[in-house]
Sequence to fold (319 residues):
Amino acid sequence: MRGELPYHELVVRSLRSAGLSAHTVADPARLVASVPQAWWLLGRLQPAALFTTGGYLALPLVLAARARGIPTLVWEGNVLPGRATRAIGRFATRVAVSFPPTLDAFSGKGFVSGTPIRSFLGIDRAAARHAFGLDRGDRLLLVFGGSQAVARMNTALTDALPRLLPDWHVLHLAGGAGMAEAGAARQALPPAIRSRYTAEPFLTDRMADALVAADLVVGRAGSSTCAELTAVGVPSILVPYPFAGAHQRYNAHYLADEGAAIVVADEDFTTDRLVAEVLGLGDDARRGAMADAARRLGRPDAARVLASELIALAERSTS
Fold:
């Protein structure tokens, strides 16, 4: 079939098991076995360069590429790199990072690329706001929990709506699982403010317009979310996902330290805290300063920077 990409699978598997099991013994064996498997695969494919986002699964490929003299480019999207990516960085040719503080983990071979994101070119803010039914003086609060619905965020928001909607329009990406709760919350609102709350499961191709239209965002602090907030230049209240090595906490605090965001810990994200933070950002001048700070951090050309570096590595290896 045209457009298909070949897929090659190594015997190494993702480390998802908790506690002791048969995988406790088998996983190291799979990792060791994957190195010669990767070495053979790269010999057959003969790539000019290798690109990886790091992590445990990339280790066999980077080791095999180094043994074959194939240059490698590793990309790390979080402020705090994982242990596996730190280890891989020692064997990689170059390491691209999304945040300047991450350079300290890669001893001179790193550079700041940013995070590859969707394009916001050509999106007019006035047109985007009109598409979401906003008038000139309206303030839009966009609330979303990343790639999955977040029950804590959904509940905090729906309980806060009667206090937020007199001052804000709210666009809420509730996820499929959160739509029943959001619909019930909307019906319970006084008719005079009900139209100021819109809930959608997802926005897909309208997400870029929503970010451009927003005056304030409440969301998680994944690498892509942080990159898009700064590319657009929109202030945010970030609620880092508390697990997965606390990567999002470091991402969120980097934006906050630069004046672009406010951080609220997941366990502290209550209805009262949400209302206090949002109403505290009702001042246009304060939000404007945060927006400027966010915009200074933005790297909307990250995909082009990464592609250029990868091509340069490939050209040097074949010259």
Q: What stands out?
A: The first strand starts at residue 50 and ends at 52. The beta strands are 50-52, 72-76, 94-97, 110-112, 140-144, 169-173, 197-200, 216-219, 236-238, 261-263.
